[in-house]
């Protein structure tokens, strides 16, 4: 009896350990995926555009990164970045590359939310910026201090079937 209980407890610990791992959302060509911020204060939508394929694999493309951040301080400036675990990425800006719905741009790479503390900003990026990363996140920071970050995601090089 004792052996059965120990075996069941051990199996339960293994299952619990596996279920606590953060899941990584896979974004595929011809789809758009919503990636939530870890604390639930908005979301990021990743959408493929202008995808170039070779034998069913994505060899080049553009991703549109659409950020809706909520709960920010209306008088504070924020930086938005797209970062991979391989230290590759990009900071949102300059204004020629940005589409703003809520908030304003301050300088080349800083954003100020609207009066309700919301930023709605998008920027198109070449897929190659993050294509070799195992995990990618969008990060909103204030004075180089992380304020919001998305759950991890990857951009698949496979098309949907």
Folded structure, characterized:
- The chain has 161 residues and is mainly beta.
- 11% of the residues lie in helices and 52% in strands.
- The chain is built from one helix and 13 strands.
- The strands form four sheets. It has a five-stranded antiparallel beta sheet with strand order 2-3-4-10-7, with no helix packed on it.
- The termini are far apart.
- Residues 2-21 have low confidence and may be disordered.
Question: Quick summary of this structure?
Answer:
The protein is mainly beta and 161 residues long. Helix content is 11%, strand content 52%.
Instruction: Specify the helix fraction band.
Output: 10-25%
How does the major sheet shape up?
A: 5 strands, antiparallel
β-strand amount = over 45%
Mean pLDDT: 82
Radius of gyration: 19 Å
Low-confidence blocks of residues: 2-21
What distinguishing features does this structure have?
161 residues, 1 helix, disordered N terminus
Topology diagram in text:
Blueprint: H1 2-19, E1 25-29, E2 32-36, E3 42-54, E4 57-69, E5 79-84, E6 89-91, E7 98-102, E8 104-106, E9 110-112, E10 119-126, E11 136-142, E12 145-149, E13 153-159
Parallel strand pairs: 1-13
Antiparallel strand pairs: 2-3, 3-4, 4-10, 5-6, 5-11, 7-10, 8-9, 11-12
């Amino acid at each position: 009896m004792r052996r059965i209980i120990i075996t069941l407890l051990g199996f339960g610990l293994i299952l619990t350990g596996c279920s606590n791992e953060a899941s990584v959302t896979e974004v595929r060509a011809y789809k758009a995926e919503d990636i939530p911020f870890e604390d639930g204060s908005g979301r990021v939508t990743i959408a493929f555009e202008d995808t170039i394929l070779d034998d069913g694999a994505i060899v080049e493309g553009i991703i549109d990164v659409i950020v809706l951040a909520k709960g920010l301080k209306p008088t504070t400036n924020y930086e938005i970045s797209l970062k991979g675990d391989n230290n590759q990425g990009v900071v949102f800006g300059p204004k020629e590359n940005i589409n703003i719905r809520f908030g304003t741009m301050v300088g080349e790479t800083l954003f100020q939310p609207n009066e309700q503390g919301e930023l709605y900003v998008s920027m198109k990026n070449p897929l190659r910026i993050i294509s070799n990363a195992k995990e990618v996140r969008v990060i909103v920071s204030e004075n180089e201090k992380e304020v919001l970050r998305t759950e991890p995601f990857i951009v698949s090089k496979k098309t949907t079937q």
